[in-house]
Specification:
Radius of gyration: 15 Å
Shape: globular
Number of helices: 0
Number of strands: 7
Largest sheet: 5 strands, antiparallel
Strand order of the largest sheet: 1-2-3-4-7
Order of helices and strands: EEEEEEE
Strand content: over 45%
Number of domains: 1
Amino acid sequence: MQNFQIFEDPNELRIKQECDYESLRKITLSKNEGNAVTNNVFNIISSNCNEKNTKSEIVFTVSSSHLTEKEINFNWKSFDTLVIEYHRDFEIFKKKQ
């Protein structure tokens, strides 16, 4: 007999974290592992670069049954422009303009 939890808290793996050119905003790419009923999810989160416990905001969220870290990336193009590259088959849950 095997035991597993259906609604356990997902494990979060931080993949990449960078501040903008003026060190004001920080962008974090993290992966939340799915469980028995959910797929893996990638989140791109924005927060303040210099403060530890600041309010963060989810900028972009995608999900797929076959997520890998190589299929999503972000780069600062300028001070106010963030470029997010991702696989076109991902299911997009949130995309901030």
